[in-house]
Amino acid sequence: MKIALIVNPLIPVPPEQYGGIERVVYVLIRELLKMGHEITLYANPDSQPGCELTGYRESENYGLKDLVKINLLTSSLLFKNFDVVHTFGRMSNIASLMPFKQPKVVSYQLPPTLSQVKKAVKIAAKNSLYFTACSNFIAQQISHIGNVTAIYNSVDMDDYHFNAEVDAGAPLVFLGRIQQEKGTAIAIEIALKTNKKLIIAGNIPAEQIHQQYFNEQVRPFIDQDQIKYIGPVNNIQKNELLGNAAAMLMPVTWDEPFGIVMAEALACGTPVIGFNRGAVPEVVTNGSTGFVCSNANEMIEAVNSISTLNRSNCRKVAEEKFSSTVMARQYEQLYKFSIK
Predict the structure, then answer these.
(1) N or C of the chain: less Cβ packing under 10 Å?
(2) Distance between CA atoms of residues 48 and 44, nearest Å
(3) Where is 107: in which H helix or E strand?
(4) 172 and 122 in one domain?
């Protein structure tokens, strides 16, 4: 099949550090190429996806000019004999394609704007528009409107090395953006109350509210001994960090759509302890690959029960549910269905 993939052009594919969607698209491209498909990626011009690339940019403050400019670009896809157009970016950027029969797949990594979904379904040619969601939690928000399939995000298992055993004093890890929704301060609380070491890795968003959160609720507890902050990490550092951790904490205070870092941890054999929000209970099997908790007290109990978990089982589940091969086969099946 000849497939066009589109992502918003803010971050290159693959990303050097943060960039969950871009990383998912990169591993998808690698797998689809192995399957013999022809891929063209529309993305940031600095991308190095390993397939044909059409680079494009958008303004820092996305507006009407961007919408028009990008739709002029994507409208050309009608004349390039693509079997399917698949966007992980703004659905509005393929608005010009909606009335035509060319198969279109729109993937949601965040809660959808239902008014936009309804509008797209209304103007799209019959049986030409399909949706995917990164979890059942997201899919169920769309299912009453359009044709949606839940396809979990994935990681390339070769990029993450399984570690069957860690030291007795292995630290807990928090890996993600340093902001209130991700629960960095709660992770610190858990570490202090369980007398465990905690390594915090991730970027601090530039917005003032996140800077204030870091300065007031995170920085005061960083002693670079029990509570250590190491900043953003690349793929090699991430593999080592997760693989040598006793567990990864996901004390999210928002409804996490998927949380690819959980799949990355499981691929290393590292269990995940998270709050029961969003897709966390879909990724973490309570009592098997980690613990799903309702509050901080339950998370403290879970940390004290890490030794009951089997790291081999974490890797096994990651291979079965969250490998790039599994994800690519599911997308391939959807593509074939869409062009019937």
Answers:
(1) C
(2) 9
(3) strand 104-108
(4) no
